[in-house]
Design brief:
The protein has one domain. Helix content is 46%, strand content 14%. The chain is built from five helices and five strands, in the order E-H-H-H-E-H-H-E-E-E. It has a three-stranded mixed beta sheet. A two-stranded parallel ribbon has the order 1-2.
Protein backbone atom coordinates (compact mmCIF):
# COMPACT_ATOMS: atom_id res chain seq x y z
CA UNK A 1 0.00 0.00 0.00
CA UNK A 2 1.30 3.43 -0.94
CA UNK A 3 1.85 5.98 1.80
CA UNK A 4 1.49 9.74 1.61
CA UNK A 5 4.81 11.50 1.16
CA UNK A 6 4.69 13.47 4.38
CA UNK A 7 6.12 13.05 7.87
CA UNK A 8 3.44 10.58 8.99
CA UNK A 9 3.53 8.58 5.76
CA UNK A 10 7.32 8.20 5.80
CA UNK A 11 7.25 7.23 9.49
CA UNK A 12 4.59 4.61 8.77
CA UNK A 13 6.58 3.20 5.83
CA UNK A 14 9.77 3.03 7.93
CA UNK A 15 7.89 1.23 10.71
CA UNK A 16 6.48 -1.25 8.20
CA UNK A 17 9.94 -1.91 6.75
CA UNK A 18 11.55 -2.37 10.16
CA UNK A 19 8.79 -4.82 11.15
CA UNK A 20 9.61 -7.11 8.21
CA UNK A 21 11.67 -10.25 8.81
CA UNK A 22 15.31 -9.55 7.98
CA UNK A 23 15.26 -11.53 4.71
CA UNK A 24 12.20 -9.65 3.45
CA UNK A 25 13.64 -6.32 4.57
CA UNK A 26 16.89 -7.15 2.74
CA UNK A 27 14.95 -7.78 -0.47
CA UNK A 28 13.05 -4.51 -0.13
CA UNK A 29 16.27 -2.63 0.63
CA UNK A 30 17.91 -4.09 -2.46
CA UNK A 31 15.04 -2.74 -4.55
CA UNK A 32 15.56 0.65 -2.90
CA UNK A 33 19.30 0.54 -3.69
CA UNK A 34 18.72 -0.61 -7.27
CA UNK A 35 16.46 2.31 -8.23
CA UNK A 36 15.57 4.88 -5.59
CA UNK A 37 13.19 6.83 -7.85
CA UNK A 38 11.17 3.79 -8.94
CA UNK A 39 11.02 2.57 -5.33
CA UNK A 40 9.70 5.98 -4.22
CA UNK A 41 7.02 5.95 -6.92
CA UNK A 42 6.02 2.41 -5.97
CA UNK A 43 5.79 3.12 -2.22
CA UNK A 44 4.50 6.71 -1.96
CA UNK A 45 1.58 8.69 -3.36
CA UNK A 46 3.62 11.28 -5.23
CA UNK A 47 2.11 14.24 -7.04
CA UNK A 48 3.18 14.83 -10.65
CA UNK A 49 5.49 17.71 -9.70
CA UNK A 50 7.16 15.46 -7.09
CA UNK A 51 7.79 12.74 -9.69
CA UNK A 52 9.25 15.37 -12.00
CA UNK A 53 11.52 16.67 -9.24
CA UNK A 54 12.59 13.16 -8.31
CA UNK A 55 13.82 12.41 -11.83
CA UNK A 56 14.85 15.88 -13.01
CA UNK A 57 15.97 17.86 -9.97
CA UNK A 58 17.86 15.12 -8.13
CA UNK A 59 20.91 13.93 -10.00
CA UNK A 60 21.29 10.22 -10.71
CA UNK A 61 24.27 10.22 -8.37
CA UNK A 62 22.31 11.72 -5.49
CA UNK A 63 19.42 9.31 -6.06
CA UNK A 64 21.91 6.42 -5.89
CA UNK A 65 23.51 7.79 -2.71
CA UNK A 66 20.11 8.30 -1.07
CA UNK A 67 19.00 4.77 -1.95
CA UNK A 68 22.24 3.28 -0.63
CA UNK A 69 22.31 5.30 2.59
CA UNK A 70 18.63 4.71 3.44
CA UNK A 71 18.94 1.01 2.65
CA UNK A 72 22.07 0.54 4.76
CA UNK A 73 20.57 2.55 7.62
CA UNK A 74 17.30 0.61 7.72
CA UNK A 75 19.06 -2.76 7.37
CA UNK A 76 20.77 -2.00 10.68
CA UNK A 77 17.34 -1.59 12.29
CA UNK A 78 17.65 2.18 12.67
CA UNK A 79 14.63 4.46 12.46
CA UNK A 80 15.10 6.98 9.65
CA UNK A 81 14.77 10.56 10.81
CA UNK A 82 12.72 12.46 8.22
CA UNK A 83 11.18 15.91 8.27
CA UNK A 84 9.23 17.50 5.45
CA UNK A 85 8.16 21.03 6.24
CA UNK A 86 4.77 22.28 5.17
CA UNK A 87 4.87 24.97 2.53
CA UNK A 88 2.92 28.19 2.82
CA UNK A 89 0.20 29.09 0.34
CA UNK A 90 2.34 31.65 -1.45
CA UNK A 91 5.45 29.50 -1.63
CA UNK A 92 6.57 28.02 -4.93
CA UNK A 93 6.48 24.20 -4.77
CA UNK A 94 9.59 24.19 -6.97
CA UNK A 95 11.58 26.27 -4.49
CA UNK A 96 12.66 23.79 -1.86
CA UNK A 97 15.85 22.50 -0.38
CA UNK A 98 17.00 19.01 0.56
CA UNK A 99 19.31 18.54 3.52
CA UNK A 100 20.77 15.13 4.31
CA UNK A 101 22.93 14.50 7.37
CA UNK A 102 24.88 11.23 7.39
CA UNK A 103 24.66 10.60 3.65
CA UNK A 104 28.39 9.95 3.17
CA UNK A 105 28.74 7.94 6.37
CA UNK A 106 26.04 5.44 5.35
CA UNK A 107 27.35 4.68 1.85
CA UNK A 108 29.35 1.65 3.00
CA UNK A 109 27.05 0.29 5.66
CA UNK A 110 28.19 0.05 9.23
CA UNK A 111 31.95 0.47 9.12
CA UNK A 112 32.04 4.18 9.94
CA UNK A 113 28.41 4.98 10.51
CA UNK A 114 27.27 3.26 13.69
CA UNK A 115 27.18 6.47 15.70
CA UNK A 116 25.95 8.72 12.87
CA UNK A 117 22.21 9.18 12.41
CA UNK A 118 20.70 9.57 8.97
CA UNK A 119 18.48 12.65 8.87
CA UNK A 120 16.63 13.88 5.77
CA UNK A 121 14.86 17.23 5.70
CA UNK A 122 12.89 18.85 2.90
CA UNK A 123 12.23 22.50 3.60
CA UNK A 124 11.11 25.67 1.86
CA UNK A 125 13.57 28.49 2.50
CA UNK A 126 12.51 32.11 2.23
CA UNK A 127 13.15 32.93 -1.47
CA UNK A 128 13.87 36.55 -0.56
CA UNK A 129 16.96 35.66 1.47
Amino acid sequence: MKQNFDNAGVAQKVAMLLALPVAERALEMQLLKDDFAVWMEHNFNLQSHQVYQLYNKLSAGLRQELGTAISNYLMQGNVLQFQKDEKGDEEDPEFKELMVHGLDEWQDGVTTALLTPLFIRIYYPDPQQ
